[in-house]
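TEACHING EXERCISE
Course module: macromolecular assemblies
Task: Read the component lines below, then compare them to the predicted structure of the full complex.
Student: A.B.
Group: 4
Components provided:
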Amino acid sequence: MQNDTFGVAAIGTYLPVETQGNESLATQFGFADDFLSSKIGVTAPRRKSSSEETSDLCVRAFEDLRNRAGDRLDDVDLIVVVTQNPDGHGLPHTSAIVHQKLDLPKRCFAFDISLGCSGFVAALAITKGYLSATGGRKAILFTADPYSKVLDREDRNTALIFGDGACATLICETPAWRIGAFDFGTDGKKSAALSVTPEAKLVMNGRSVFDFCALNVPGSVERALTANGLTKQDVDGYVLHPGSRYIVDTLHDRLKVPRIPFPAPYGNTVSSSIPMILRNMDPVVQRTVVVSGFGVGLSWATTVLRSVTP
Amino acid sequence: MITEQDVRKAIAKARDNFDADALPIDADFGDAGLDSLDQASVLLELQEATGIEFPEDASNLNSIEAVLHYAQSRQS
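Instructor-supplied answer key:
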């Protein structure tokens, strides 16, 4: 029997201090003056230091979560790290390294999830399912995918977009938002559109990714709303993965909902992008929130978060 | 059948404050100020309207004329 009480209780975030100046880079690439502001939206993507590992980003996000959640972080049953840029070569899994760095008890299990921009929402389902299946009560869901490890700084398709960052999300039975029904999908035939070459360089077919998002995400949002017994009139906020300003604007237009100011000038932080925004939302005001992640795979994952905060 | 007017309408829809009617049929989109994202929107609009699928690498479809030629070759 599924336990539907699990939800998002608190979110800690970490954005490195160092930034990449995008204006000069956009000029260098030959983009028009308004391209950054009107199309990309990312003005100062964050960059981790060369000495910071993926697990270090998780630890920094955990420290912020601890400031918010305090002793609610005791007795955690599970930690999960969503990443495709793990520590070292991925063995051991980064979550085990985070487990060590946080000195967690042996009875706390740890595993990684290999997903990109759909990873946070997919991991909500996986984490909720794990806790339900095992009788667990608490999990911390880390998202940390520092694309600076694989970015080609001379590639005009990707160099302006991605930023480093991490989030730590507490999932438990006394949440701010409960997790609703989901809608998922993958188009593996388009998997090469966003991939890393044997030379460890990120490549992206921007048009293919754009088409995939424009053609699939609005339908996913509609299906997720239906699965939760809701309509767009019930929604207080949409957190659609901020891959770029252009895609966010396009999706709002296609959903026929008002556009919003681009929420991620610090960069597309991949699986951290959604919790990075959610952290600043108020569950008292924004009680019903659609969250949708989409990208690597190519894949999408959508659900609805509903506030239980009085 | 995609017409020249269909392409101009798609351009106007993709890019605010752009005079698509004044764009010469053989003008390079990039030179005219339409970036790669605008071009992606134009092709998606035409694809949804007509069912014609454009190639993943559409870098040669860089003018109204080139788009029309490609569409006509797929429809003939």
